[in-house]
Specification:
single chain, 386 residues, alpha/beta, Aldehyde Dehydrogenase, Chain A, domain 1, Aldehyde Dehydrogenase, Chain A, domain 2, 2 domains, 7-stranded mixed β-sheet, 6-stranded mixed β-sheet, 11 helices, 34% helix, globular
Length: 386
Amino acid sequence: GVGEVYRAGQFFTYFAGEALRNLGASADSVRAGVDVLIEREPLGVVAIISPWNFPVATASWKIAPALAFGNAVVWKPASVTPASAWALTEIISRQAIPKGLFNLTMGSGSTIGRELAAKADIQGLSFTGSGAVGSGIAALAAARFVKLQLEMGSKNPFVIMDDADLDRAVDLAVNGAFGGTGQKCTASSRLIVQRPIHDAFVEKLLAKTRALKVGHALEAGVQMGPVVSAEQLSANLDYVTLGISEGAELATGGEALDLAHRGHYMAPAVFLNGRSRMRINQEEMFAPITCVIPADDFDEAIFLANDTPYGLTAGIATRSLARATKFRHASRSGCVMVNLATAGTDYHVPFGGVRASSYGPREQGRSAVEFYTQVKTSYIHAGAAE
């Protein structure tokens, strides 16, 4: 919505400044009379493949640094969000940049995306999407030694310790799980709760989840909008059925909603008595579905938090500095949130994950220069002075 477009503007503003801060360095050579210069140069042509869940902001955090550091761009947005892509491209077309420096190409990932990875004359490819698609793109692009930056799946844990501020922890869990209809790579799809406060947390969690107002995203008071498509809604409902078959208890939600405004709506779902190895706790659902997993103690909570192939964000609610510090160090994730929701990052600092969540240099902030440029080292011998 409005917030996402505003964030996109922040990316362009930030990287406009970075264009002037792309400074080189010098070094003394080990050889007499030789100077060494270290400079960063553009890759050349960069392909950008962006997702539908934040169609303007995610694209902008790739496009802005690509252009700021001197690259030409070929952008393929998600096929289900063409209008916002056209609008952003129209804005960029009004700027004083050389013809052909920025290019929009529409189409499906299986055709256009594959062509970009396999055949296009590009030097770098930045992709955000599913792990399966990212793996396929990597295989095609790596065969041609194209530089890669991949942001893929996630299965983010939010850990609630027995010393946490319970009301705040519930607010953070609901925001992380159901904000953006759960269609965030940073969503809290696993709520790991220490047993002494488990029942009290669940009672408050269910009450707050049931009170969420689902409806048209632009209507006053609505807290959760529709799912992106009929196909996504069907997949979400299949995960609800799967969770039940795996033995998790569906405590609330999980059904499709027939509302006055046309759209793909579902009630936010909470599963209880989850086990870590259930598929609903291992696979990225991209849905307003979360599962509570009990933990006996802090060490088990850390183990459970790390017990997936992914590692994008992880959060903990605790009043203990010692626990927060240990969790930060032990978490196998790229971003750690302490007493904050797993969803919600700043635009001027690095973003990315580890393991199956990410591959290649980090996005955002000063880290973006690592992907969108390459280093050149020059050695200069000035000769003897006259």
